[in-house]
Amino acid sequence: MSPRRRPGDALGEYRRKRRFDATPEPGGDEPRAPGTAADGGGRFVVHRHRATALHYDLRLEIGGVLASWAVPRGPSLDPAKRRLAIQVEDHPLSYFGFEGVIPGRQYGAGDVIVWDWGHWWADPGTPDGAAALVAGELKFRLDGVKLRGAFVLLRTDQWRGRLGGGTKPKWLLIHRRDDAATPGWEAEDLPESVKTGRTNDEVAAGLRPTGPVARPPRSRRRAPRRAVEVPTT
Ligand code: MN
Question: In whole angstroms, what is the distance from residue 168 CA to residue 163 CA?
Answer without folding.
Answer: 8
